């Protein structure tokens, strides 16, 4: 794992944006895996700015989102569809037909999940999967106890995740109980995983993900098995890492050709 610790979330997001932008420039038909939540907001703002100011071209890019709430119409203000259009897709030139987000209203969830997996494969696989992390260590919506080789499927949210999402749904009672999420096996097939985490609230999940054992009880820990997992953290999210000084030293002494 590559651990990059930055003084704040702004600078951390800048590094993540440079990684994504480099891929988009080098591979105009790249496939991006998108995440939602508060964490990637600055990354998306930076990408929109790069599109506007330096013509970063998303015209050939395909995207797959990690998850969507079951029973939530795409037009619902708290759907993950709405989030993506509000914060990214309305502001860049990614063609609508190349945007893929699980359908929370599908009548046949298993069939829709199989189709989603097939679509990822047909697109050639995900080049960079952007990830946040839940306070309980979930990635996508793979809650603790998720199979480490799971595929896109329906999951039941934990109490903790429903509480974390409560503000967006006007209170915990409004938060859907189920989601469709890419599995840990799906995420692990991405060529690169780029996980962002900011704030003290994430420090424990980050420490367990990086320095704890690989366990289904901390789904993010499966990234230890990924050949190219980059974690971009602010100081607070890194505050419980035992080897933080070493990670910082490694980053500061990268040869020029390895820098972002
Ligand atoms: C959500 C999403 C994750 C996200 C995480 C953290 O529930 N399913 O993809 O990374 O929880 O959210 P936030 O970035 O708002 O802290």
Provide an overview of this structure.
This protein has about 260 residues and is an alpha/beta fold. It has a single domain (about 1-255), classed as Rossmann fold (3-Layer(aba) Sandwich). About 30% of the residues lie in helices and about 15% in strands. The protein has eight helices and ten strands. The strands form two sheets. A seven-stranded parallel β-sheet has the order 1-10-9-6-2-3-5. A three-stranded antiparallel β-sheet has the order 4-8-7. Strand 9, helix 7 (about 205-210) and strand 10 form a beta-alpha-beta unit. Helix 1 crosses helix 2 (about 40-55). The radius of gyration is 17 Å and the shape is globular. The structure holds 2-amino-2-deoxy-6-O-phosphono-alpha-D-glucopyranose. 2-amino-2-deoxy-6-O-phosphono-alpha-D-glucopyranose binds near residues 38, 134 and 141. 2-amino-2-deoxy-6-O-phosphono-alpha-D-glucopyranose binds near residues 35, 36, 67, 134 and 140.
Can you tell me the residue ranges where pLDDT is under 50 for at least 5 consecutive residues? none
Order of helices and strands: EHEHEEHEHEEHEHEHEH
**What's the overall average pLDDT, rounded?**
97
Distance between the termini: 16 Å
* Number of DSSP-assigned strands: 10
Total count of helical runs of at least 4 residues: 8
Q: Beta-sheet strand percentage?
A: 15-25%
Characterize the largest beta sheet: strand count, sense, and whether it forms a barrel.
Answer: 7 strands, parallel
Anisotropy-based shape = globular
Portion in helices = 25-40%
How many domains would you count in the coordinates? 1
Provide the spatial order of strands within the biggest beta sheet.
1-10-9-6-2-3-5
CATH first level = Alpha Beta
CATH fold call = Rossmann fold
- Structure classification: alpha/beta
Please state the second-level CATH architecture.
3-Layer(aba) Sandwich
Ions and ligands: 2-amino-2-deoxy-6-O-phosphono-alpha-D-glucopyranose
């Amino acid at each position: 794992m590559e651990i990059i610790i930055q003084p704040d979330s702004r600078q951390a997001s800048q590094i993540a944006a440079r990684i994504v932008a480099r891929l988009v420039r080098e591979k105009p038909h790249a496939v991006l895996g998108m995440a939602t939540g508060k964490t990637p907001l600055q990354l998306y703002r930076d990408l929109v700015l790069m599109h506007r100011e330096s013509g970063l071209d998303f015209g050939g890019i395909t995207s797959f989102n990690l998850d969507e709430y079951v029973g939530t119409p795409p037009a619902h203000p708290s759907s993950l569809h709405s989030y993506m259009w509000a914060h990214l897709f309305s502001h860049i030139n990614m063609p609508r037909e190349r945007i893929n987000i699980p359908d929370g209203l599908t009548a046949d969830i298993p069939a829709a999940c199989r189709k989603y997996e097939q679509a990822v494969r047909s697109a050639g696989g995900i080049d960079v999967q952007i990830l946040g992390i839940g306070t309980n260590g979930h990635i996508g919506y793979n809650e603790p106890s998720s199979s480490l080789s799971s595929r896109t499927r329906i999951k039941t949210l934990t109490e903790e995740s429903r509480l974390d999402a409560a503000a967006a749904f006007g209170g915990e009672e409004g938060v859907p109980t189920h989601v469709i999420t890419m599995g840990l096996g799906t995420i692990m097939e991405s060529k690169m995983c780029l996980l962002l985490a900011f704030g003290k609230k994430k420090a424990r999940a980050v420490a367990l993900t990086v320095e704890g054992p690989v366990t289904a009880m901390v789904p993010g820990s499966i990234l230890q098995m990924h050949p190219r997992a980059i974690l971009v953290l602010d100081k607070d999210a890194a505050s419980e890492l035992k080897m933080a000084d070493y990670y910082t030293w490694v980053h500061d002494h990268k040869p020029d050709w390895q820098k972002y």
